[in-house]
Amino acid sequence: xxxxxxxxGPFNVPEGATVAFNCTYSNSASQxxxxxxxxxxKEPKLLMSVYSSGNEDGxxxxxxxxxxxxxSLLIRDSKLSDSATYLCVVNMxxxxxxxxxxxxxxxxxxx
Amino acid sequence: DTGVSQNPRHKITKRGQNVTFxxxxxxxxxxxxxxxxxxxxxxxxxxxxxxxxxxxxxxLLSDRFSAERxxxxxxxxxxxxxxxxxxxxYLCASIVTANTGELFFGEGSRLTVL
Lengths: 111, 114
Prior knowledge:
The complex is a heterodimer of chains A (111) and B (114). Chain A is mostly beta strands. Chain A has no helices and eleven strands. Helices cover 0% and strands 55% of the residues of chain A. In chain A, strands 2, 4, 5, 9, 10 and 11 form a six-stranded mixed beta sheet that branches. Chain A has a five-stranded antiparallel beta sheet with strand order 1-3-8-7-6, with no helix packed on it. Chain B has strands spanning 5-7, 10-13, 19-24, 31-37, 44-50, 53-57, 65-68, 75-79, 88-95, 104-105, 109-113. In chain B, the strands form two sheets. In chain B, strands 2, 4, 5, 6, 9, 10 and 11 form a seven-stranded mixed beta sheet that branches. A four-stranded antiparallel beta sheet of chain B has the order 1-3-8-7, with no helix packed on it. The interface between A and B is medium-sized, with 26 and 23 residues.
């Protein structure tokens, strides 16, 4: 089983739609979780951290479910500019702060 | 420019040759990571350093791969006897502390092995 798993998509949605991605992780000892965004042919950049209590940043909401070992990202009112690959990242503290990426979920927002 | 710098940006080599990539992290960042990314995949962890100490190396890596970070500043990643399967984007990232999770990536070094 992979350490971090994501549905690769692509998710094709119209502008204004709400879309959600899930990510599962295998190591229950994992401590920190993040969502990164990667545009085509660009390097990944941090989108948001995922806290136990959940967190929201504008149209983006991240949630953590430790019992089921998954994190989620919800995007409301999708914009064309949201089209990108969304990468789930887990800090494998058991292995000394190894940051492990999922394969990414492709989002395409269309007008 | 105070971001993470990688060079060369592109490298084309013949199978069996050795290649070396360099990464200059953000100066105050004490932790440095190397990842490899192929098309349609997320960045795959290779190794990371805390200052000059290499703390972990992926079990997926063969002995042909070696990385160093002398003096805890820049880092080099060397691939010996390259194979076509080594063709990928090699990404370097640095961070002050992994607790924040905000890795700052360089633009990557793209390797093509013919």
